[in-house]
């Protein structure tokens, strides 16, 4: 049951306490409570998604992410020295993040990454269970492929053989056509097939090439772990309680035991704030941290699990010296380019025309059809590699997990970024195999203080130089003959810049994606696990929700197995 008030919560003692009701947390809670003999409490800082239009209507998805809404943690990065000391709002990165509350993955893009991403996780962890072949069934278990809202013929737009059909999360292809723009993208794959081959399905484990974007959307609405895993039937389970507006500060009631020498420590309680009062929820079996790549390391650090020197400097006593907590954060920086177009068939035809906007919204309300059924990220995506002889490999060895994995994602969007009147299209180039690393650290001993988020953007020269090369792919893409007569002037003329100027410009104008933190079971502890995006040891070359879902599905199986 969903509780809005701590006073209504029937108990503060459960078998499992899950911290965070986001993408992963709700999967774990839903799967664990399939066994009616275990009890689970989820503590979520945010409000409910129910009745929040921005969380329901794909076209309004940005509204959930913006700083200043009740659904955002309102975080910013610390000044990024590698990016002209820019302070980035840490959410609007079109691509990734974590602070959506109750499972609102903003952009809705559904991309699994390369098979090689998962095979690398298997190698790094020594656990074959994370390999693509072993993880693939979890993708199918999570997914329910769904016809697009306009029921158009999807033949040749995806490969049904690699999709699940009866999982909780609906996945679909755009349900409204920006046909003119789409044709130019597809024709480019025919006119420049060597550089930009068509890929029938970017979620087959071999993402390279240009293909139709897939989204976590069903029937014109967002599909998320809140809608897919927290169904009315699941919410009626007597063994599942979810408390909203409960912000966890730290783990408490640490005990020491000699029973398992490798796991001498255990936390038995989770301290959380509801309103102005503090409470402790107790877990007899496990505490599962699913608070995302910022929340999870912050809670561990608040609890005294982290680098001893840094904790001591803040006056926090160390429970276990684990210097890796909050380190190894990485990000997908991206750079967007816009061109004016000789057409009025762009998203601006809605966003810059109040009458059409209202008509489109009314259509969505009436029949869940029309342009509001899709988010605005784009109609297609392309996954590309640096050229094998690129000079950037002199600076750093290839950071991608293998030859079938991308260095870049190119997103094709029938709208511009400038915000000026007119009609535009954009190509966004994201660097999805970053070498730079950052960190999440505490700003004070106050567990509710905003943590310091350092994405380390461009701290390694490789990333900026690689992204500069990536820009050349985008500029080449629009040289295909199909764009003649359609494409107007770029909003910023990048071709007039020298390579050094272009690199500096990219450093100053790129946006961020998401950091993460590795490790599933927290070393040294009994009954403490991390199950969320932060366990991925290296960010996949993809948007991260699909990887998070399979981490959560397998994570839930691992927990079940431990207690069976
Ligand atoms: C703007 C934006 C766009 C995105 N677009 C896409 C996309 O298009 N495609 C894609 O694949 N991925 C996208 N993502 C990324 C995706 O949302 C994440 O990969 C995914 O949500 C990570 O799941 P998680 O369970 O680790 O964390 P989350 O889903 O963030 O869940 C963490 C939960 O814990 C809660 N929490 C945190 N701290 C505490 C605390 N102290 N106490 C209690 N609760 C706490 C949070 O409120 C949240 O509900 C986007 C993210 C953002 C923000």
UniProtKB/TrEMBL annotation:
TM annotation in the entry:
none
**GO MF terms held by the record:** flavin adenine dinucleotide binding; oxidoreductase activity, acting on CH-OH group of donors
Q: What sequence ranges are listed for the domain Glucose-methanol-choline oxidoreductase N-terminal?
A: 292-306
Q: Which PROSITE patterns does this one have?
A: GMC_OXRED_2 (PS00624)
Keyword Glycoprotein among UniProt keywords: yes
The species this protein was found in = Mycena sanguinolenta
Q: Which Gene3D superfamilies match?
A: FAD/NAD(P)-binding domain, Glucose Oxidase, domain 3
The reply to whether Glycoprotein figures as a keyword in the UniProt entry is: yes
What is this protein called in UniProt? GMC oxidoreductase
| Cofactor(s) the record lists | FAD
Q: Which UniProt keywords apply?
A: FAD, Flavoprotein, Glycoprotein, Oxidoreductase, Signal
Binding of FAD occurs at 95, 248
Judging by the UniProt lineage, the source's domain of life is: Eukaryota
> Pfam families of this UniProt entry?
GMC_oxred_C, GMC_oxred_N, NAD_binding_8
